[in-house]
Request: fold
Amino acid sequence: MRALPWSPQDFAPGLAIELLVMQPTPFCNIACDYCYLAERDAVRFMSVDVVRAAIRNARDSGLLGRELDIVWHAGEPLAAPVSFYERAFDIIDEEVGTTVPVRHSMQTNGMLIDERWCELFVRYGVHVGVSVDGPAGIHDRHRRTRDGRPTHARVMQGIERLQRAGVDFDALAVVTDASLERADDIIDFFLDSGIVRAGFNVDEQEGIRTGSSLTGADSRVRAFFTRVFERAADVPERLRIREMHEAVGRVATGLPIVTVAGRPLPANPQVLPFATTTVDCEGRFSCFSPELIDQTHADYGSFVFGDVLNDRMIDALASDRFAAVFDDILAGCDACRAACPYFSLCGGGAPVNKLNEGGSFRIAETRYCRQTIQTPIELAMAALEAELLPEHRPLTID
Ligand code: SF4
Reply:
């Protein structure tokens, strides 16, 4: 472990928040059985004072770059009222709008979308992600209300409202064991529903979800993504799959390189301090993987590094606990560099998955990264090779 705490001078180019995750409430209005949130029953909401303190703190800590993405997420962001977001967006605009372009997005279960929400999304240019796992038979296996009722029909009403209002949105599907042999049904569902962009999150072992339906299912997950990519490649003008798009981008250009205390590192916003910063409804802040904010660990205690109302964000960098977490995350990157051929395209994955699957930030591979990083990269590489080296082109070897 490094003897000294970190300072902003150890990073080139400098430290900046790329993604600010604002958690307006831990509460969720439904109860999916694969949910990782410990406090989804807790009815607490962020105040506009916390919103103002968070954005001022980021600015006064010198952590704002040339632009800023803010995602409102976890629990269900639409459980907070429209009026909260009107005020929150205006405050953020007042504080930084003239110097830093801000893009807002929300990740929602879609149950509460009505015309007022659509007006808000259009007025503020909010990008929306809607969780829908595919057709009802797949989606309703896991995404149910607290009293066990299915949610698919109401989510689709929300999606239709977004479409009528011309709101920019993506679908986000959790891949579970129930999805793996149903790739065609899921793609048909997206196409039939007029969904033009979709992403897949694998069922993760994280937080209070201590297992995953995809444990031991690597080859089936690979077959699933193979079929998804094949289908999407047939209709590129009608459907874009996030994992395919991102993997092709990574293979084509690699990740930019940053320098951490003189060591080059592929830029991965989950391992660089503050690149991903999370603020919860009470103003507590964390960084690295957003899910860490709710977790504790015997080696570190909490992953909360301060609160935006009382502590300058940047000062967290000099704390012993921050140094312990960051040093172990860097050790995990070193393990990845030594073991994984995809390190330059990944940059060390998601620390929270290393901790929750393997018990340590210091490890390399996880099931999560095999299924959701390595597999898409391998499929993208195979597709590019097939394009560059078609069978009819003879290979000459001297
Ligand atoms: S794909 Fe996995 S093992 Fe490879 S660099 Fe990323 S996190 Fe590390």
About this structure: Residues 10-253 form a domain with the TIM Barrel fold (CATH 3.20.20.70). The first helix runs from residue 48 to 60. Residues 336, 340, 342-343, 346, 348-349, 364-365, 369, 373-374 surround iron/sulfur cluster (CB under 6 Å).
